[in-house]
């Protein structure tokens, strides 16, 4: 396995993990917290599902 294959597998796993997190939090009507331009931003998980 070369570095490119490993990188693609890691990115694929991260995308799957994020999708599962969004689905889980939207069922609980929760928010996710991000940093944008150095500021804290809260976004409803169900808004990210779209």
Describe, in plain words, how this protein is organized in 3D:
This is DUF2292 domain-containing protein. There is one protein chain. About 60% of the residues lie in helices and about 25% in strands. The protein has two helices and two strands. The protein has helices spanning about 5-25, 45-50, and strands at about 30-35, 40-45.
Mean pLDDT: 95
Unreliable sequence segments: none
Q: How many distinct helices?
A: 2
| Beta content | 15-25%
Principal-axes geometry comes out as flat
Structural class: alpha+beta
The radius of gyration is 14 Å
> What series of H and E elements makes up the topology?
HEEH
Largest sheet: 2 strands, antiparallel
Give, in spatial order, the strands making up the sheet with the most strands. Answer: 1-2
Query: How many domains make up the 3D coordinates?
Result: 1
Q: How much helicity do the residues have? A: 55-70%
Assembly category: single chain
Q: Work out the number of β strands.
A: 2
What's the end-to-end separation, in Å? 35 Å
Blueprint (SSEs and pairs):
Layout lengths: L2 H25 L3 E6 L2 E6 H5 L1
Antiparallel strand pairs: 1-2
Short description:
It comes from Rhabdobacter roseus. This is DUF2292 domain-containing protein. The protein is an alpha+beta fold and 50 residues long.
Q: Keywords, please?
A:
alpha+beta; flat; 2 strands; 50 residues
